[in-house]
Amino acid sequence: MLVSLDPCTGEGVWEGPVAGVAQVAAAVEAARAAFPGWAMAPVEARHAVARAFAEAVKAEAEPFARLIARETGKPLWEARTEVASTAAKVEISISAQMGRAGVAEGEVAGTRSVTRHKPHGVLAVLGPYNFPAHLPNGHIVPALIAGNACVFKPSEHTPAVGAFMADLWERAGLPRGVLGVVQGAVGTGKALAGADIDGLLFTGSAGGGAALARQFAETPGRILALEMGGNNPLVVWDLAPDKLEAAAALIVQSAYLSAGQRCTNARRLIVEDRAAGPLMEAVTALIDRLIVDQPFADPAPFLGPVIHNAAAEHLVAAAAGLAGEGARVLRPLVRRDPARPFLTPGLYDVTGLGARPDDELFGPLLQMVRVESFEAAMDAANATRFGLAAGLIGGEEALYRRFWAASRAGVVNWNRPTNGAASSAPFGGIGASGNHRPSAYYAADYAAWPVASLEAEVPAATIGVGVR
């Protein structure tokens, strides 16, 4: 049996059977059988079902948010934001599909040229736990409105949210079999990736994405969209003295929002050495004011726990390792209750460390580096195999242009948090952060494949050269 637990209390939230190879194959077979009818339905009909799903999400917004908060531990205010994003994804995806994967007509030498798009068939979706509704929904909605059938495996840590969301699709009138759900952990995911599918859409860790890339290496005809993590840099440079408080707020939001469990959270803070003192005073003062508590607490917390005890233990060990290597502890990452995964936000000055591991430490742990020049700041920012998000705080536009040009990241922000992203823009990264298939607005690109046609209503051709 698969059991999910409330990370704040340890109480059970959901339990159900684990899907084995046979159950996965049956779900894929059902999706395969449902695909032709769904693909042939008018696009307006598919849009209508998606819009009905959005209305169902809105109608169940509060219980949906409370379930997310219970299963992930994130604050209720943040869970409500996730539910709103889940509903809003529908209209954004419809707009993207019509703009990026609609019908384009032209003329070539007097012949009509038409580009249309076809769905792949059956697409697998592997979802993460940090945004258990919004992120898999960002794959599912574009895939379904393009005419694909989907088989969805939620994270093993958030199966209840996945099942709840699938029920809302059924309530919206999605035909049986078009969206199947299989529950389980790594074994179920491997079985689904190896099943008779036409592609896989993934959000998760770099290690998980690399394993899928290896699994798909022998089947290049199957689409594989990988949205993975980051070791994201945030550079503060040429900051006006009267902007210290604003900069501190941007740093704290970048590093500690969602308990540091966003792939776009800042992991590395790179600052001008001569200006580090006042900035760190403002940042640590704000850290000391942050409330860490359970989702429904009053006053509302800024951050809740990380997803489970093993994650907390890993982060505590990583922080201890930094301190053991000589990092200066500005604010310690502390696990206040050894039985529960609540962590206080940690800030460590790692300037003196000779070798810093290029890892995504998925939690409220920020490493600070002091440098002498902007060139050194960019070298430090790009010293990573990842390439998801990067941010600059301070400076004039000319400096930002330098920063943008030199950054290796798919999301580059200026005077905004690293975890700020527009739904009307693409989202994704390079290197260990993804395989150049950005999601969000560009998800329409991988949900269907283009078919280019030259069309004439009657045959008309002659051969004018090389004929006796």
From TrEMBL:
Query: What biological-process GO terms show up in the record?
Result: L-arginine catabolic process
Q: Pfam families, from UniProt?
A: Aldedh
Q: Where is the active site?
A: E227
Tell me which EC number(s) this protein carries: 1.2.1.71
All copies of the Aldehyde dehydrogenase domain together span 5-444
What InterPro entries does the record point to?
Answer: Ald_DH/histidinol_DH, Ald_DH_C, Ald_DH_CS_CYS, Ald_DH_CS_GLU, Ald_DH_N, Aldehyde_DH_dom, SuccinylGlu_semiald_DH_AstD
Q: Does the keyword Oxidoreductase apply?
A: yes
Q: Which domain of life is it from?
A: Bacteria
What is this enzyme's class at the first EC digit?
oxidoreductase
Keywords, A to Z? Answer: Arginine metabolism, NAD, Oxidoreductase
> A Gene Ontology MF term for this entry?
succinylglutamate-semialdehyde dehydrogenase activity
Task: Tell me its family.
Answer: Belongs to the aldehyde dehydrogenase family.
How is this protein named in the record? Succinylglutamic semialdehyde dehydrogenase
- Which organism is this entry from? Polymorphobacter multimanifer
